[in-house]
Amino acid sequence: MKQLKYKNKSYFCIPIGLLVFFSLLFVIGCGSNLQENQESARPVIKQYQDEISVAMPINEDFFYQAVVSISSLIDTASDKTHYKIYALIPEDFRKEQIEKLRSLEKIRDNCRFEFINMNDEANNFLAKDFLGIDFYKLAVSTALLKSVKKCISLHPSTLVREDLSDKFHEVGLSDCYVAGVPGFCDFVENEEDYLQRLSIENFDYYINSGFLIWNLENCRKDKIADKFKSFLIDNKDSIEGNKFLDQDAINSVCSNKIFILPLAFNVFPNKKVNYNDTKFSARFSEEEWKSSNDSPKVINFSDDGGPWVNFNLKEAATWWNYARNTEFFNEFQDRYLFGVS
């Protein structure tokens, strides 16, 4: 009986020993996995040390254009480029739309969003009087982006075709408020009156607001936001007949401190402009005109008739490919192909 009792103890010891053995393996494995997870997490932390800030005004009308624009922004980014996207949205922007925008963070893990309510006067000094999304970009000049020193402003109807980090870091804005590409100004009927209203000498430095790089430090230091507000209030009577009032504010207030960017950063594919037009040829060489149209870095579809309605435009197929690769392409089809609102 004693011998049997001894054997029984042995039988109990074997499974206990195995349990301890596998428990140790589990602990070691967990430790190894934890270490691996920590290792894999490190690049994600590092990638946010040198982010490029991008502000984009987005509302219900431009939601799908914004999805495509941001998709192109992160798709063309180099491996070292990471964007923090400040989505400037109205108060009634739907939660489901926010979640759809957040789904873009999963595509390449090279962007993250911050959503800012532009109906809140604490965020937008123009909220009382000027609530159209085109005026949102003017609020960027305040402390809206807090400690951000420099940022890109993108219209939601733009399509990004190349990485923007090199130009962002290359452009020196030490003495300037903003950088942009000269506009066509073909909407101006009486040039003399228009220039006088803006208090500028000519249109040589009149920039389009579709793609901008802001020096936020200078804007905050010189209280540019207050000057924007004064200009808009003084010109409020013309807001109905002038869809470029936000652009006029930038050009009037910042007129002597504007940095000119190459044409390739704001190409209009639906502008039938002949290079021999004297106004245009005075601003850009024929070589730049040709190279920019052949290899645009940012395409601006802000004119009426973007690729969502005009399938024959340059890069229309690219625009629709980005739409197709979203998780909700059926919504694009319903809205723009089948006319279902």
Structure description:
The protein is built from 14 helices and nine strands. With 341 residues, the chain is an alpha/beta fold. The protein has one domain: Spore Coat Polysaccharide Biosynthesis Protein SpsA, Chain A, CATH 3.90.550. A seven-stranded mixed β-sheet has the order 3-2-1-4-7-6-8, sandwiched between helices. β1 (52-57), α2 and β2 (83-89) form a beta-alpha-beta unit. The protein is globular, with a radius of gyration of 27 Å. Mean pLDDT is 84; it is low at 1-47.
Q: What labels describe this entry?
A:
341 residues, alpha/beta, Spore Coat Polysaccharide Biosynthesis Protein SpsA, Chain A, seven-stranded mixed sheet, two-stranded antiparallel sheet, 43% helix, disordered N terminus
Number of discrete domains? 1
**Arithmetic mean pLDDT:** 84
Largest sheet: 7 strands, mixed
Query: In total, how many beta strands?
Result: 9
CATH homolog superfamily = Spore Coat Polysaccharide Biosynthesis Protein SpsA, Chain A
Name of the level-1 CATH class? Alpha Beta
Q: Which structural category do the helix and sheet elements fall into?
A: alpha/beta
